[in-house]
């Protein structure tokens, strides 16, 4: 019995040592993120898409809750405090303040909600065109020039910026139905759920990729523990590798097959 | 050359026959869904969760767009037309009308947004308790009695109904953090992303499962083609098998191991 008790105590000792080592590790790693905080401005414009804007909003709000206030998030518009109607006759949201392109943090631009194609007033291209005639493009130009700001987009948000020439030669993604247009507008379309072009521009694909854009930015700015807590609360797991122009680029088999065909002499039987 | 042309024409003929057979098939299947339409009421209450309510809202709105108006969706409240604040000091949404428990279709109840536990005013259990003191429970009781209504919930929405005793002995799911409470309130908790208890009550798990609840209901009421179009637009694929009490039930190995131990005589060496 005494021997068993001795064994048990050694086991408890080992366990407690292991436990302290495990609990020490996160502390070490947290140092990179110590005193980190982020402010997020989500830009509303007439005809914006509800989910594009509010899925990231809620990820950032929950991250703020779990971090004891290290993340703050607000809805803004180019015109300041006003009620902004969403697309497809959807409900309006109140922008709390004017977009401030001098404020450090993240500025997220959602896409529009409407008919995916066509020339009607409620077609997405027309809604984006109208947003482009407001004060928004100038403000976003200033945001891109500010080294303390990361610009993020969801869905048609990247098209909106590309229309102003702000994404010239930048890697970006948008909803699958807008990828050709994104290329035609001077951006470099990349087929990924989330694309990071340098550290200061992050774009997401269709509607629900806003969850992935926001979760990625939460992890990047505050570490993986807060992002994981939000994922568990939302019962969602971030999807897809965040593409950025680093590491080995994969062989493009369409191009390389063509190239090797051209190089090889024709085989005549 | 003539032979080649003949072959080509036969090939074109076969192709066109195949194509007409393919295009005929959906028509046959569509008959079940012919002239189908659905109206969806999404219930707002003070402190509701934005995504729980708006992810399904946007799925139904997009389904309406793709079906040429076979789906209509509106935001409602027990008190009628009013501005309803979301939880965690989030933005308010305008309820367009009073919840009508006599109107055929779907009534969807979202959960609350706030601290996942605790006794503070902004803790989820307290927000749900306050919603229960409004006219909502009586209206939902009448909705459950109406054979032309399907009640759907997302996240804490099922807890809200369970608090009123409306889910007694019904299969349901809620956010993982609320599953024990759901059982304590008389429901039968089922670990699935979407649970269908008979055809007139469908519940979803945490926040983002609202996408799956709405996509399932769109498929059930209007067929898979509209649901698929919405999935592609949103770049989201419905997740998980919709659980319902049919077919073979899986062996519960925790229970059966215990049972077989008890049945077998102890083995003495």
Automatic annotation (TrEMBL), chains A, B:
Q: Where is the DJ-1/PfpI domain?
A: 39-219
Spell out the Pfam families in the cross-references. Answer: DJ-1_PfpI
What Gene3D superfamilies does the annotation carry? Answer: 3.40.50.880
**UniProt superkingdom:** Bacteria
Region forming the signal peptide: 1-24
Does the keyword field hold Signal?
yes
One GO biological-process annotation of the entry reads: regulation of DNA-templated transcription
The UniProt keyword set, sorted, is:
Signal
Segments spanning the bilayer are: none
Q: Which PANTHER family match?
A: ARAC-FAMILY TRANSCRIPTIONAL REGULATOR, DJ-1_PFPI DOMAIN-CONTAINING PROTEIN
Instruction: Tell me what this protein is called.
Output: DJ-1/PfpI family protein
Tell me which species this is from: Paenibacillus validus
Please spell out the taxonomic lineage of the organism that makes this protein: Bacteria, Bacillati, Bacillota, Bacilli, Bacillales
